[in-house]
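Subject: sequence -> structure tokens, single chain

Hey, anyone have a minute? Need the predicted structure for the following. Not urgent.
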Amino acid sequence: MKRTMMVMMVISLVVAGAAFAAVPQKISYQGVLTNASGVVVPDGNYDLTLSLYDTLSGGTALWTEAQLTAVSHGIFNVVLGSVVPITKAFDKPLFLGVAVAGGAELSPRTLLTASPYSLNAPVMGFVSSSATTTISTGWTNYEDEQLTLYCPGPGYVVVHSTAWLQINHVQGTSDRVQVTHDTTATGQGPDYDMISTYLIATDEPTQYQDVTLPVQTVVPVAAAGTYTFYLNGQMLEGQDTADHFWYAGTTATWYPATAAAATAAAMRSHHPQKSVEKAR
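Reply:
Had a minute. Here:
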């Protein structure tokens, strides 16, 4: 007899990474198993094959596990990830497919939705680059230092970078370099006060100066979606073709709107720009 699935409740727990290990790294799922006539199946143990996809139909499973599951009055409960760890990042909509006793997968698949954990858990991304990119007199994106992050809802993204620069300083002239984050490759960021600046004074000897410059930017996010953040730099004084980015690492962390105001205020108050801007 053909069996069909009627979903009663779905809970997904989004895991941002090891830094947020307090959020469970599994997904709880509850459903009702019925036959083709809509009558619940007899009580007993049933072999379920559970799979995650990034499409509603077709495609290739991103994760799969099998569980022998007890069914009572048609109701069953499983915890996805109990057998095979879920290592797939929850950075896009995912759909759960279920097959019973080795049969064809039931249709339609179920879209995983947010749980109370995921609505309050930060989501983090990281990128680094070792490219050599000349810093010009206008805002220039550091090659390969673009970080794309899926934000599950409105809130703020706190973007932090540490940039290593090499500045070709000539005694008698001053060099002033700035770095920032923006959602475009040529922008100066949402707030001028969050730009980090470094000054090499005119009396410094002629030589390459290795500069380590931290920068942190708080970017408001109005709605769920995928956003890209760029690390940009410019020379305000003393620019020549030997001034360049040398290495950088960037993290971006999304915080939900419920916690974002306090987080954004804290990030602004600890922004390093004022302490970095100094003469050498």
